[in-house]
Amino acid sequence: MDFDSILPQVGSFGPYQKFIICGVLLPAVIPCAFHAYSQLFIAARPGHWCRVPELDPWVLEYPDVVRNFSAPLEFRDGAWRFSECLAFKRNYTDLAEIWRTQGLSHATESISNDAEVTSCKDGWNYERKLFSSTVITEWNLVCEKNSYATVALVLFGVGGLIGNYVFGYLQDFWGRRPSFYAYLLLEILAGSLSALTWSYASWVFFRTLVGVTVPAILASPYVLAIELVGPSKRVFCTIVSNIAYSLGLVFLACIVYIFRDWRYLTLAVSLPLFLLFGCFAILPESPRWLVATGKFDEAAVIMRKMAQMNGKVLPPDYEEYLRMKVEAAVEQATPETRTYGIMDLLITPNMRKKTLIITFIWFANTSVYVGLSYYAPALGGNEIWNFFLAGLVELPTYIFLWPSLTFLGRRWILCASMVVGGVACLATFLVQQEHVVMLILYCIGKMGISSAFVVLHWLHLSCIQLW
Question: What's the angle, vertex CA 46, arms to CA 190 and CA 145, rounded to 5?
């Protein structure tokens, strides 16, 4: 049965759908943004240099002086910088005594710049102007352990791949609503437990569990939204879902600004999500899924609520009406003589061309969007402010796309978005020393790739329908 043919009987986009989408499903997307990018700050790597125990009494008050005494200069990233993994071999006991008894100026005169260097023996000192504590500072994941944070991020992404595969089946088996709340509960518990971990390995384990849930938390509200409305309003659902995601990035920056300790930050982006369970009684199951699985009684109850709020009147025997429509559709259906698989995407020249082009564009868009989002804190200046702007600049893009997708078509908007975003990103290589100009170009690039992400989804669906 074509569910879209009966949806107008209860209202395909009335007050009921607007309330559920904007009041419930929109906030439900926010947890995805919280947990997808909070690891940028939880595992932020501050500036650091080798710790010298004899100079500890002055490290808080004179960190730059202590670093100058202990860390040699090295040419790194195109400039001379203090070494993060090497220290001068000096008699720091005598140096500390001179500083204590005769003052800083005499201590400075007593040092020589030709001393030998050695690796860090007693840990590291960290800059704590922006973050009081991160996973990096907690377990000294620097120098020979420099790759540990990247490994954690990779495992987080692998968890997302597993979650996409597993929870896609669970959605069809359990239904949209119980699946979403199952993902949400797992995300909250794993996220909260990661704040209580005692080692890097245990933290990575729980962060991987969080990664398993992130794609499903994003997809479930979106799927439920488009299944509640008619085809003409699915652009609205896509735009609203992306707006909610971008708002999540903006809110995350605000939360990071308040909580600078990684454990408190982890709890701050996890525990408040329990509030979403307050919407459990309000959020409906997808009537499309209920009808498709033969649960006509439950589907009829939800559709009566939809009709009542949308000002429609349904007959008393509406459940039987749904059952008859499905049975009639089954009787009229042509028996399927062939099963379809992934190779059918490549079987004809036309479909093969479209599949390869869209696959390449998906890969390019995903790589650039995620890369730009993760790169925001590394632009220079205030990391939190950069990330805030990276989320904020996406919002005007979606507002512009709302009417454009309807009146201008998909293909040209996609091409223009990717060209603008790509040119802006490439141009940043020419202005690396101009922080403000580079930040403006970054924002333009982020706007371009964000709009391409929205359009690509609809172009993909159009190609499948044409085939």
Answer: 70
Q: SS3 sequence, 51-117?
A: CCHHHHHHHCCCHHHHHHHHCCEEEECCEEEECCCEEECCCHHHHHHHHHHHCHHHHHHHCCCCCCE
What are the residues whose beta carbons fall under 8 Å from the beta carbon of 129, sequence distance 6 or more? none
Residue 41 domain-assigned (yes or no): no
* CA atoms of 269 and 252, how far apart (whole Å): 8
Rounded to whole angstroms, the Cα distance separating 92 from 69 reads: 9
Distance CA 283, CA 24 (A): 7
Domain boundary among 281, 315, 337: 337
Could you say which DSSP state residue 24 is in? Answer: I
138's enclosing H/E stretch is: helix 135-139
Contact (CB, 8 A) for 137 and 44 = no
Q: Note the pTM of the prediction, 2 decimals.
A: 0.85
Residues 135 and 123 in one domain: no
φ, ψ of residue 330 in degrees (nearest 5): -65, -40
Note every long-range contact of 288-292, with CB atoms under 8 Å and residues 24 or more positions apart, other chains counting.
288/3, 288/227, 289/172, 289/175, 289/176, 289/227, 290/175, 291/1, 291/3, 291/322, 291/326
Dihedral sign, CA of 393, 396, 402, 406? negative
The 10s digit of each residue's pLDDT in 317-369 is 877 878 887 777 666 765 555 565 667 677 788 878 877 887 788 788 878 88
- Please name the residues in contact with 249: beta carbons below 8 A apart, sequence gap of 6 or more: 33, 37, 373, 387, 390, 391, 394
Contact 31, 217 (CB under 8 A): yes
Residue 42 lies in a domain: no
Quick check: 367 and 430 in contact, CB under 8 A? no
Tell me how many domains the chain contains. 3
Q: Rounded to an integer, what distance in angstroms lies between the CA atom of residue 449 and that of residue 304?
A: 41
Asked whether residue 40 is assigned to any structural domain, the reply reads no
